[in-house]
């Protein structure tokens, strides 16, 4: 029996930021697109962090205390990012979602961001596999 791989269901057309992006520009993009976060990459396309809603809450708190609403994504992003490989099977990724309670994982190959996989992507893949639409 063939397993279903991350690469078959991951999102490949991603919204990303750089560490040098103004944090309020990033906030505006995330709100407009209804995203809860986005990966942060350097000029070489290497994943260097993730900017999440929780990270942006720090911006709001800091702004209220210090009356400072400036800053860059690199000042607030999370750098301890759990990633997965494109050839992982979806059932293993489902277990990771259960263990870590994240909404999505960056998919990385040789240090480069190649996609993102969400809980919904995994569920869609498992449904397709169970219904015989794949494999």
What is the CA-CA span between the terminal residues?
8 Å
Shape: elongated
What is the number of helices?
5
Helix content: 25-40%
Major sheet description: 2 strands, antiparallel
- Beta-sheet strand percentage? 15-25%
How many distinct beta strands?
4
Q: Biggest sheet, strands in spatial order?
A: 1-2
Structural class: alpha+beta
Which keywords apply here?
about 140 residues, 5 helices, alpha+beta, 4 strands, two-stranded antiparallel sheet
What does this molecule look like?
The chain has 135 residues and is α+β, with helices and mostly antiparallel strands. The chain contains five helices and four strands; from the N terminus they run αββαααββα. The longest helix has 14 residues. The mean pLDDT is 88.
Write the layout of secondary structure elements.
Layout: H1 23-33, E1 37-41, E2 47-52, H2 53-66, H3 73-76, H4 90-100, E3 104-109, E4 112-118, H5 119-130
Antiparallel strand pairs: 1-2, 3-4
Helix pairs in contact: 4-5
Gist of the model:
The chain is built from five helices and four strands; from the N terminus they run αββαααββα.
């Amino acid at each position: 029996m063939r397993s279903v791989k991350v690469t078959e269901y991951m999102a490949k057309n991603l919204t990303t930021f750089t560490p040098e992006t103004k944090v309020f520009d990033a906030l505006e993009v995330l709100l407009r697109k209804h995203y809860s976060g986005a990966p942060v990459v350097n000029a070489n396309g290497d994943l260097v962090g993730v900017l999440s809603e929780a990270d942006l809450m720090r911006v709001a708190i800091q702004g209220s205390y210090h009356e400072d609403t400036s800053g860059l994504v690199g000042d607030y992003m999370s750098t301890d990012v759990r990633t997965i490989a494109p050839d992982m099977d979806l059932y293993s990724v489902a277990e990771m979602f259960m263990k870590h309670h994240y909404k999505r994982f960056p998919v990385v190959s040789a240090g480069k961001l190649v996609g993102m996989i969400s809980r919904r992507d995994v569920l869609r893949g498992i449904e397709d596999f169970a219904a015989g639409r794949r494999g």
